[in-house]
Design a protein that fits this description.
The complex is a heterodimer of chains A (91) and B (239).
Chain A (H helix, E strand, L loop, with lengths): L1 H25 L4 H30 L4 H26 L1
Helix pairs in contact in A: 2-3
Chain B lengths: L13 E2 L2 E2 L4 H20 L9 H20 L8 H18 L11 H23 L17 H48 L1 H37 L4
Antiparallel strand pairs in B: 1-2
Classes of the chains: A mainly alpha (91), B mainly alpha (239).
Chain lengths: 91, 239
């Protein structure tokens, strides 16, 4: 009998662990991490966009055009980054 | 700003065009790594039921990081515990050693933080491709977007993905650099105002030291937690 009892208790314990793991992913990240994210997220996307535009201009020799386009694309990417982090914080 | 100067210690070593001499930056990286190794080897030496101070320190930091990983990246990220733990400890110790007067703050140099961040970025991308194959590219194509807008959206997503290492490294570097510069400026006020008016900036400087210790811990924490978030994106693909 004690063996059976042990088995059922083991089953219950295992179920508990798997349930806990399911909830693990739904836990939203600690808000302080996401809060610090916002400040630099906007700037860094603009910088990366401008650098990509600069590289394209240098390789293709089309001086101002790619840098102009990618600057604005970078701004849009930065704003999407910020909106996405803000949405994550609200969850 | 002599505190940010990198200078050579010992002889000059050159490999091809690269200067790989031993500098004060490398010295402080080694000091913090050795300190971490010392604390954790002493802390895990004898596992007594009633822990002494060092064992308590080691166990507390272990559970702290372990909880952080399971909260943000879920149970799938458990195999990456060792990496995130050593990353957190390295950044924390580098920041904290920088708070001691006459030392060098390794993390106040963008090249150091950028190398750390790009290492994480490449690692996370590789993990994503191993786990999901080419399905990882779905990260750049959000669902429910009209086909006309798709090229633009993909470019925006790629830029926002590439901006991750930049934002990660700039955040740590800027916080450390700005804090140390501010302390230097207030210290300079104390000297220039002399014994009459120097007391006010001196009290500010004391308060700033406390703030800087908080920032040093918080930035190490943020660095580690963002690594967890990026790892979570790579392991559990959902957008």
């Amino acid at each position: 009998m004690p063996k059976d009892q042990f088995k059922t208790r083991l089953e219950i314990a295992k179920k508990k662990i798997s349930k806990k793991n399911l909830y693990d992913n739904k836990n939203n990240p600690s808000s302080i991490g996401t809060a610090f994210k916002l400040s630099t997220e906007l700037v860094s996307a603009v910088v990366v966009g401008t650098i990509i535009g600069f590289i394209f201009d240098k390789t293709f020799g089309t001086k101002p055009w790619f840098i102009l386009i990618f600057f604005f694309v970078g701004v849009v990417a930065g704003i999407t980054n910020v909106i996405r982090s803000a949405k994550n914080m609200q969850k | 700003m002599t505190q940010f100067n990198v200078h050579r210690i010992g002889p000059e070593i050159k490999v091809g065009a690269f200067d790989i001499s031993f500098t004060n930056a490398s010295l402080f990286m080694i000091i913090s790594s050795v300190a971490i190794l010392l604390i954790f080897s002493l802390g895990s030496k004898k596992n007594s039921l009633l822990p002494n101070k060092i064992q308590l320190l080691a166990e507390l930091s272990y559970t702290f990081v372990s909880k952080m990983i399971s909260d943000t990246a879920g149970s799938k990220a458990k195999p990456y515990f060792a990496f995130i733990f050593s990353l957190f400890m390295f950044v924390l110790f580098c920041n904290m050693f920088g708070m001691i007067p006459y030392t060098f703050t390794v993390t106040s140099h963008i090249i150091v933080t950028f190398v750390l961040a790009s290492f994480i970025f490449i690692g996370v991308t590789v993990i994503g491709f191993i786990k999901h194959g080419f399905g990882y590219l779905k990260l750049f194509v959000p669902s429910g977007v009209p086909a006309v807008l798709l090229p633009l959206i993909v470019v925006i997503e790629i830029i926002s993905y590439l901006s991750r290492p930049v934002s990660l490294s700039v955040r740590l570097f800027a916080n450390m650099m700005a804090g140390h510069t501010m302390m230097k400026v207030f210290g300079g006020f104390v000297i220039s105002l002399g014994i009459v008016g120097g007391w006010l900036p001196l009290s500010f400087s004391v308060a700033l030291t406390g703030l800087e210790i908080l920032v040093a811990f918080l930035q190490a924490y943020v660095f580690a937690i963002l690594t967890c978030i990026y790892l979570n994106d790579a392991l559990n693909l959902h957008h």
